[in-house]
Amino acid sequence: MPDAAAYNVRVIERAMCILGCFDDEHPERGLSEIAQMVNLPAPTVLRILATLQSAGYVERSAGGQKYRLGPRLVEMGLSILRRLPVRREAKPFMVELARRFEETCDLSVFTGSDMLCVEVAQSERTLRIAANAGYRSPLHCTASGKAFLAHIPSEEAIAMLSTRLQRYTERTLTSPQRVMEQLAEIRVRGYAIDDAEFRPEVRAVAAAILDREGRAIAAIGIPAPVGRMDDERLHEIGTALVEVAREISVRLRGRERKD
User: Fold this and answer.
1) Per residue in 205-255, pLDDT tens?
2) Which residue has the higher pLDDT, 65 or 92?
């Protein structure tokens, strides 16, 4: 079978690299900066950016000196999110959990290196943990990330933890062995805990949604300010999340049989 790389179209490949230059920390970049990142001449990058801009995939910043991702990508992203079966099945449960516990409830999926939030049911409290679809978070120090890691084959989890683990707070575990020990505890307990490991003012709890083979396909979680999330409440919410995650998993398997 021919190598997939043999079918690559160079200009499209370059355009994808250019789009990959933008992220939450760098929503806008200048031409020379982009050219340096993708290792291409500035005139070549300019032509590709002009084509992407005409199609709505990038746009110029207000000052006109920098570029940012365009509305066409937002439309495509939202279209993908709307079609996710796990999102459709989880949303009613998320709304009920947010009402019951008066805390924000989020749903995340794995995207190759981190967790991507695809749905949020906001708390009605004035002081709440803000979350939005599209937000990315690391695997090793978030409740959703650890819930996911705990329900994939151990060798895959070890591989994902083999890179340098960033420290976000004084409570972040940066030892792969220590994280793997936590994953074993999560499998027994059923839910994962973020004990102010990602953001010092937040504790969170999450449970994995599983496919028919018992592999994680998503995680449903609830974060809250540290002052509102003591150990007793963590356990109460965690237990509820496990029950909901189990019900969503069953519904998704039923949908697969119908399809």
Assistant:
1) 999 999 999 999 999 999 999 999 999 999 999 999 999 999 999 999 876
2) 92
Q: Provide CATH 3.30.450.40 ranges for the chain.
A: 84-258
Quick one: which of 58, 13, 17, 57 has its CA closest to 36? 17
The CATH number that domain 4-70 falls under is 1.10.10.10
The CA distances from residue 149 to 29, 37, 90, 93, in Å, are: 33, 31, 20, 23
Model pLDDT, residue 1: 47
Fold type of domain 84-258: Beta-Lactamase (3.30.450)
CB 108 within 8 A of CB 118: yes
